[in-house]
């Protein structure tokens, strides 16, 4: 499995999570759409990839308690180990733009390795309102929707795309059978 985050960047994210109650706390806003995607397609296991404060899991439980939500976030102690079991849906809500550019390929490969049938990605294309302790904007990858769609294409077939003002979009994709795999 490729490395998904540098130790230095994990520490910076841990610090921001500890200092700011609002950092990584808004995934609940997409719970209805993620639950609807799973239920409509007979999917049962969702991975909240980059779960932050973990607000998606209880929100989905209140909508449909039959859905199982696993959590992974490399900057949250106790949630910092990627599950090894397969999942049906990966939800990465305001996560992709936070990935270190050199690690994006590994993150996408790690997502594919979990054999999801689909992904639900909320991606920001604008700078974050938060700054890391080293002075960088919290959004490390600031690219257009078109750039992201092209970057995701080798891994996921786009099923749905919706721009969300201001400066973000929802991408729902099906995992490609020929997606690049991580080299062991």
List keywords for this structure.
184 residues, alpha/beta, Rossmann fold, 6-stranded mixed β-sheet, 6 strands
- Helical fraction equals 25-40%
Arithmetic mean of pLDDT: 96
Report the CATH superfamily: Vaccinia Virus protein VP39
Give the ordered list of helices and strands. Answer: HHEHEEHEHEE
Strand content: 15-25%
How are the strands of the biggest sheet laid out side by side? Answer: 2-1-3-4-6-5
The tally of structural domains comes to 1
Number of strands: 6
The CATH first-level class comes to Alpha Beta
Largest sheet: 6 strands, mixed
Number of helices: 5
pLDDT < 50 stretches: none
CATH architecture: 3-Layer(aba) Sandwich
| N-to-C span | 6 Å
CATH topology, which one? Rossmann fold
